Amino acid sequence: MKADTITKDYISDRDIFSDVFNYYIYGGQQIITPEQLEERDPKEIALPYGADGAAVPVQKFRDVQKLCAVKTDGKLEYVIYGAEAQAKIHNAMAVRNNLYDALEYAGQVSEAAKSHRKAMQKEKEQKQESGEENTEDGKKTPDSHEFLSGFWNDDRLIPSVTVTIYFGADEWTGPLSLLEMMEVTDPKVKVCLNDYKLHVIAPAQMSDEEIGKLQSSLREVLLFIKYSKNKEELDRILRENEERFREVERRAVDVIEVITNTQLNYEEREGKVDMCQAIREMRMEAERKGELRGEMRGEIRGERKGEKKGELKKAQEAARNFYNLGIEVEKIAQGLGYAVETVKVWVGLRSEKN
Question: Across the strands, what pairs with 58?
Fold first, then answer.
């Protein structure tokens, strides 16, 4: 499965999603709870008007987007959170996320205008049905500016915050703002430009203490990725966090495997995986295969020193030994330099008559 599919599915979980924003906004404090998050369609659509006055549809897709409702001083406040999962560095990420947020706000303005039009039309119809005159009744009447924009003076946008999670072992080297993507020397021009800051979580640029502020399995995922290219440091991290690495949820292990290209053999128990044991078994298997390859090469070199008859006998014995160890016939044939069909005869899979 592709890395972007695995990581997108992983961060869409409400526990992981809330952990991302609790870390990035609140420094690890558990302010946002999974229960406060409401699923939103990540599809963003706005209709900016072209030069000829025709509506031009624009459509972009976020990876994950959720609405958070928090009660503050008795008042319900909303924030829209968006998360982008990146397995590779995207040099235009600032533009991409800026577009997502802008489309979100454009959509809100459009919805506000639609809501006001609907309310005014309903009010008009009610008055017509009741025979009331169109007099002031205490309800707000929009001024010309409000009517033109559809966004009234007391309307407010719901803030949108987008964070990019970079699932790479290297440092994020892409631009972290719109201005970093530009080359502007005139200070008077520069002061007129609106910047957009890119919010990035990149494990290679985080201290272990910073990663430790995460409360979900994302902590183990980022720690493993950070040290995946350094065996000694990875061993240290596994030892220091052994209790948590012994119970890593399966979906987190899937992310680790696809991002670090690590093939793990493990037993899953109640959705949990012992990563420490899986790593040990992986290394033991690699060492065993290395020893077998060394033995095979040694056998071949020894056989070539003897006479042809002796070489054939040793090759036959080696083939049977390797076959009894569970090595595939094709690999044995390749290592010994004989045809697969010949090796099959030696190990008893085929008779010489055939």
Answer: 46
